[in-house]
Amino acid sequence: MNKRIAGLFLAALVLTADQGSKYWVLHGAHLTDGHVLVLLPVLNFVLVWNHGITFGMFAGAGAKVLLATVASVVILSLLVWLWRSKNWLTSLAAGAIAGGAVGNVADRLHYGAVVDFIQAHIGGWSWYVFNVGDAAIVCGVAALMLESLFQRPPVAPNGAQR
Question: Which residue numbers are catalytic?
Fold first, then answer.
């Protein structure tokens, strides 16, 4: 399998897992706003409608179309990056990010908000509520950051580093 197909496959896998988990939360688990399903001492499912973007920012009226348009441009850019990538990690990371972003755009267009439901916490400290697509986006960005930190500088034909 080449890296382009692998990146696109991962994007489709993330999108399927994201939308499937959201469907289950809305129609199978029957979580209602504010109801908490305790899974582990450090993990809950709780339904939150995110009308904004990261951490609920920019949640004002009329933001839905603007946010979906900006996200769509980002998704197209990620797919171009995935297609032009010279290595596997970049292709997979771009695919993970694109798949998560498509899932969130689909929510925004279908529901007017993104469905978030995973809450990690320790004692009284709680991380923000997120979804499978958000987790894929964070993992993809982390992979790209690590790749850039450990990337070797290119070597010139005469053996000198550029």
Answer: 116, 134
